[in-house]
Amino acid sequence: MEDYSGYFRQGDLIAKYLKGELSHPEREELADWIAQSEHNRALFEKLTEKDTLGQELDRFGPGDKEAAWERIAAETGHTQTARTTYIGTRLGQLVAAALVIVISGLLVYQVVYKDTPTQPVAQQLNDILPGGNKAVLTLADASQINLDDATNGEIARQSDMVITKTADGQLVYDLSKATAASSSQRVPVVAYNTITTPRGGKFRVILPDGSKVWLNAASSLKYPTKFLSHERQVELNGEAYFEITHVKTSPNVARPFRVCSEGQVVEVLGTHFNINSYSDEKSVKTTLLEGKVKVIKTLANVSSNRPNGKTASALILKPGEQAQLASGNRPNLNLIAQADLEEAVAWKNGQFHFKDTDLPTIMRQIARWYDVKVGYQGKIPDMKFRGRISRDVPLSQIFQILQLSGVNFKLDGRKITVKS
């Protein structure tokens, strides 16, 4: 396999140049490389351009090209007149690491793959690509539709409901497209569907009442194809972000929406919130962004469909708050008054967001999104990480950032070994 260490060395030198951290020997080394050819000189000029770096760094965080450049300039002090810096925070280290990776990656592409652009660089390096819009829809009759392979447009009809798949990875339940014959049925038939995302998958659903659900990797949502009773209820395993439509059963009575997950029920009317209920996490987290929700701790499991009357405790959340239901035999329901909303919904916005996050938690997120298995060799490093990384980058770029913080990895197929 090609040795790319030289390109990463040059990337490191160029990053240090932008930050004003070159030692005298490193300055001479970079100057010698630039002087070797006109191609190297042109590459250096291109890789130190504001527009080039701003566009590439935008993949590591939110905002447009100009905002991305301003973030790196703030951390490195890179302006038109000065290139001095002081990086003293973990976030600064991650931004600096992103700078090295972007420059090195552009070097590899320009030098090695410029003449063979038909295949993505990540595939040529046997890299693992990020997840995408993947899910399986299980209908009421137990038949399954692989949404990865299904063509866009109508994919099924159930009673008076038409199910459509859109080009942007969304499943829509639409009553307005029903035929006159099916709509004239006197007794509506209620059927239950389940959408399941694999590891490395995500999908969106517009429910029959117009509510929107974003489903994260390794998750499932069970719901009726039509909400008929005085309440609306779904069952969640894994993680999902909800935007619930406000519906009234009468002019003065609102119809509640309930999300049942392991050990709790969340009751809402019309609101935006996120539930993380993965079984391998330390707690179930319900984070409210807009509106009001009631989180009820119960002794029932998901399959019971509703609280069993043995309610242990409940919390009313206001926007910006988070309820945490600890796992174990004696779970506690705790209120976090000031939750990090960006961190809670970063996955929905296409990011990993780490805020004093330990390595095992990071690796669980990586395992779900890249569909890999994770093991540890030796003691698990006791480290905390801060920063944002795009979920659209190949796995190797995640590794490069973590390795610059002292974490080592070995990749064998789809098995990652973290080595201390």
TrEMBL record:
Q: Where is the Protein FecR C-terminal domain?
A: 352-418
Record keywords: Membrane, Transmembrane, Transmembrane helix
Q: Which GO terms describe its molecular function?
A: sigma factor antagonist activity
Annotated Pfam families: FecR, FecR_C
This chain belongs to which protein, by name?
FecR family protein
Q: Which residues form the FecR protein domain?
A: 194-294
Entry annotated with the keyword Membrane: yes
Transmembrane portions of the chain: 91-112
Q: Which organism is it from?
A: Spirosoma endophyticum
Against InterPro entries, the record matches this protein to: FecR, FecR_C, Ferrdict_sens_TM
